[in-house]
Specification:
Blueprint: E1 2-3, E2 12-15, E3 18-28, E4 36-43, E5 49-55, E6 59-62, E7 65-76, E8 79-84, E9 90-94, E10 109-115, E11 121-125, E12 129-137, E13 150-155, E14 160-164, E15 172-176, E16 181-186
Antiparallel strand pairs: 1-6, 2-3, 2-6, 3-4, 4-5, 7-8, 7-10, 8-9, 10-11, 12-13, 12-15, 13-14, 15-16
């Protein structure tokens, strides 16, 4: 058993007869009244995100987990196939278990969180950022740069990302995986 002071991003807990992963949290100490922890929880079975507030000091049922490095192989429909880098065993996960499957390219190494009790995969953690090539984007129009203007671009995995006007087809860009946003252009 853990308490609300142990809450951190990525912690898996049992709540409402399901296993949830904490994706955001905020400890709040108002001037009047008791402290509490405001959280955003993502169900590892359905992918549904719920907001919840825990009173400070409340006991929470944490789930013991292990992390393993897996390489993304391919997907067929909503099933994604991964290979363990240590023993080369393969597992399949549903699309709902992935946070940003559209930013994953074949060969990408991800961290999979596995429940220690029953060896069931719970969720997939992508790297902080990925580097992808732009396959399609409209050309930027000179003179349209009065503000931080952006345009949609399609990357090699099929995802659509808003990029600055100076990005062209064939450029490699760095994308933050948590928000799916453009970070910078990569020079080669």
């Amino acid at each position: 058993m853990a308490t609300t002071s142990d809450i951190r991003n990525g912690l898996c807990i049992r709540y409402n007869n399901d296993i949830y992963k904490i994706i955001e949290f905020l400890h709040v100490k108002p001037g009047k009244g008791p402290a509490f922890v405001r959280t955003k929880l993502k169900s590892v079975t359905s992918g549904k995100v719920v907001d919840n507030t825990f009173p400070s000091g409340r006991k929470i049922d944490d789930v013991r987990v292990e992390t393993h490095k897996f390489q993304y192989l391919y997907n067929d429909g909503d099933t994604y196939h991964f290979m363990n880098e240590q023993d080369y065993t393969q597992i399949q996960l549903q699309k709902s278990a992935l946070d940003t499957p559209e930013l994953m390219k074949e060969g990408e190494v991800v961290t999979i969180i596995i429940n220690s009790e029953d060896n069931m995969p719970l969720s997939v953690e992508m790297p902080q950022s990925v580097i992808l090539e732009v396959t399609h984007t409209e050309p930027g129009v000179k003179g349209n740069t009065a503000t931080n203007a952006t345009k949609p671009a399609t990357v090699e995995t099929g995802a659509s990302v808003n990029v600055p006007l100076f990005i062209n087809e064939g450029d490699k860009i760095k994308i933050e995986t948590t928000k799916g946003t453009y970070q910078e252009r990569i020079k080669e």
